[in-house]
Amino acid sequence: MLDASLRTRALAVISSHRQNGTIVALSSEAIQEGLQPGMKVSLARKMSHSAILLPYNTVLYDRMNRYLYHTLSAFSPLVEPASFGQFYTDMTGMDNIYRSQKQAAALISKNIQSKVSLISQVGISSSKLVSSISTAVVPEKINEVETGNEPKFLAPLPSELLPAIQEKPVKRIVDFLFLHCIRNLQSVVRQDDTGRLLFGPYYRRVAMETQGQDTSVVKPPRYRNHIIEQKVLTADTNDETILRPVVQHLAEQVAFQLRQRHQVAGSISLEIHYTDGFRNARKGSVRFNDDKTVTDVCQDLFTRVNYRRNRIRSVFVDAGRLKTTANQLNLFEDQQAQDLALAAAMDKIRSKYGFTSVVPLSALRA
């Protein structure tokens, strides 16, 4: 794009001009000459005397990456940079602006191509995991995996595409049993006892990923050092008997992570997204990291933030300004000590069997 004379040449981007440098990226002309990604620079020079070897330009790529980020930010307020040229966008609440997700994807691709002459690939799904895999395996520029079809989409693909398979204990089991297709993994983890026996503490993660389930949310750069939990409701509602348990469940998830890190949150924000795309937020803080303290603060924030009659689509809790803490022993038994002791007991169960092994009864309705 910067040098028109390079457009028809065999071109390779390399990590270094030294002999042990490797090829990072190639033009189609360089591939036709037999060069491959990961090939040593010394071998590339022997194989092709006409190929132009350009050093990795971090400054240029970083500048382009920031430009792409700002371009995408015009389509959604929640954009997360994953790596150079790769982004996640949360399109929740954008239904009133775009006719469909595919229309939004087409507009994004067209905008990027017109501004920077780059061809985009877009994966659309209800989870970051499936969207990412979609862009890696589907040749179409825009591919949508409808909610509920994630297991069917993943079934014929290689198991190594799932992040959990990169864990050494999991990979050993997968290689030993020749579970190289996600379909095979799905059949194994479908039997709870067998899955736990094979994968142990990784079972729940493997089981979720084989179904295309990914609870992580899109995190803009400013949220990198935060603890964030979000719940997208199965049906938009303004019924507080459903919403209050959701807030409690999110608060307990945040509190659990705070205790795992031995931290407290100097700032905690609760944000709600309405059906019509409007969003509202309030901030507070917590002195302790037990479930009751964090839940009480979040419930108070929810009371202050939810003053509209419109139905709510999602609830978002963000804990920031994290500070290390040590719960000091108290000579006298008080309510705070009891709350911390209860939280510690529940943490043992959740650490062993997963967070959802203990949930409030009311949360099961959400």
Q: Could you outline the blueprint of secondary structure elements for this entry?
A:
Elements: E1 11-14, E2 23-26, H1 28-32, H2 41-47, E3 52-55, H3 58-72, E4 78-83, E5 86-90, H4 101-116, E6 122-124, H5 128-137, E7 142-144, H6 150-154, H7 168-176, H8 182-189, H9 192-199, H10 203-210, E8 227-237, H11 240-261, E9 263-274, E10 279-284, H12 291-305, E11 312-324, H13 335-353
Parallel strand pairs: 1-3, 6-7
Antiparallel strand pairs: 1-2, 4-5, 8-11, 9-10, 9-11
Protein traits:
11 strands, three-stranded mixed beta sheet, MutS, DNA mismatch repair protein, domain I, 13 helices, Alpha-Beta Plaits, four-stranded antiparallel beta sheet, globular, 4 domains, about 375 residues, alpha+beta
Q: Radius of gyration, Cα only, in angstroms? A: 24 Å
The neighbouring-strand order within the major sheet is: 8-11-9-10
Structural class: alpha+beta
How many strands, which pairing sense, and closed or not: the largest β-sheet? 4 strands, antiparallel
The CATH C-level name of the largest domain is: Alpha Beta
Strand content: 15-25%
The sequence of SSEs as H and E is EEHHEHEEHEHEHHHHHEHEEHEH
Uncertain parts: 327-332
Could you report the average pLDDT, rounded to the nearest whole number? 85
Distance separating the two termini: 50 Å
Q: Count of DSSP E strands?
A: 11
Percent of residues in helices:
40-55%
General shape: globular
Under CATH, the topology of the largest domain can be stated as: Dna Ligase, domain 1
Count of DSSP-assigned helices? 13
Number of domains: 4
CATH architecture of the largest domain: 2-Layer Sandwich
What is the CATH superfamily classification of the largest domain? DNA polymerase, Y-family, little finger domain
